[in-house]
Amino acid sequence: MIRAGIVGGTGYTGVELLRILALHPEVEVSVVTSRSDVGSRVDALYPSLRGAIDTVFSAPDVETLSACDLVFFATPNGTAMLMAQQLLAYGVKIIDLSADFRLKDALEWQHWYGMEHACPTLIAEAVYGLPETHRESIKTARLVANPGCYPTAVQLGFLPLLEKGLIDPHHLIADVKSGVSGAGRKAEMATLMSETGESFKAYGVAGHRHLPEIRQQLALTAKQSVGLTFVPHLVPMIRGIHATLYARLTGDVGSLQTLFEQKYADEVFVDVLPANSHPDTRNVRGSNNCHISIHQPQGQDTVVILSVIDNLVKGAAGQAVHNMNLMFGLPEHTGLNTVALYP
């Protein structure tokens, strides 16, 4: 059994990890931390876990966590980097669901996250945890940087076209909508129901923290720098990411449908829908699946890719468990066979 610890077990991502790991046949959740709930039972805070998780919250102590085989950090940015070196020294593997190790340039990370990086020497070692692009590196990694939710949906949509050089990499557009759980579990005016209900708005147009992460990874695929306009939106739903992606085709591309189907034929969590489909976030809610469809409106040179995920699962906790399965040599779908919730 894999002895797993979760640092930051009281947020939406933390409880989603607990929900998934509670039914994982190869995992024992041995440590769950929360500074504010030390000594309280996890299922007292989350009664949905009654009978599934029999653990008490503890303080985020390196000595306690060192008994784990793997530690998930479901924490705000700036936390994992303070403990990573010590845990790695104990032989503990780490999957960080924050942004601490996603960017390869420490100065750029400081610019976007407003703090100096505490362990820049680990940035080069960290493996970016998108299994569809870094599967082999993840298998041997000690430290995995779990991708952001927006970057996951955007990358999976653009990936097949950039790999083949079929679109202009300098003029990409990602118009992406997210449910309010993407903002985390905190009391904040902007995410109150009375503020988000019956409303729909863009934000971060001048620059969102996920922009450099998306550009970095798309550039690796394209083997050159990319130009990306990324506009996130907040919509009045709890879960879900819907990415509408635009690019200009650069020549005769043949069947786009066939290209995407062949690219993702062996990917257990990426489902290319039939031609002319329109993915719906409700059809991936609670699952680790990404649904994709491809359109070429009026047969012109603009391609439109639609990519939808559950931001808390494929965009966070589910992808982290997928990475864990790879790191420990387990079948990739282990513990992640959940069918989406409907309605």
Automatic annotation (TrEMBL):
Pathway: Amino-acid biosynthesis; L-arginine biosynthesis; N(2)-acetyl-L-ornithine from L-glutamate: step 3/4
InterPro entries: AGPR (IPR050085), AGPR_AS (IPR023013), AGPR_dimerisation_dom (IPR058924), AGPR_type-1 (IPR000706), NAD(P)-bd_dom_sf (IPR036291), Semialdehyde_DH_NAD-bd (IPR000534)
Recorded catalytic activity of this chain's protein: N-acetyl-L-glutamate 5-semialdehyde + phosphate + NADP(+) = N-acetyl-L-glutamyl 5-phosphate + NADPH + H(+)
GO MF terms, alphabetically ordered: N-acetyl-gamma-glutamyl-phosphate reductase activity; NAD binding; NADP+ binding
Annotated Semialdehyde dehydrogenase NAD-binding domain residues: 3-141
Places the protein is found: Cytoplasm
EC number: 1.2.1.38
Gene Ontology CC entries for this record: cytoplasm
SMART domains to which the protein is assigned, alphabetical: Semialdhyde_dh
UniProt entry tagged with the keyword Oxidoreductase: yes
Entries under HAMAP family matching the protein: ArgC_type1
Free-text function comment from the UniProt entry: Catalyzes the NADPH-dependent reduction of N-acetyl-5-glutamyl phosphate to yield N-acetyl-L-glutamate 5-semialdehyde.
Protein name per Swiss-Prot or TrEMBL: N-acetyl-gamma-glutamyl-phosphate reductase
High-level lineage: Bacteria, Pseudomonadati, Pseudomonadota, Gammaproteobacteria, Methylococcales
Gene transcribed to yield this protein: argC
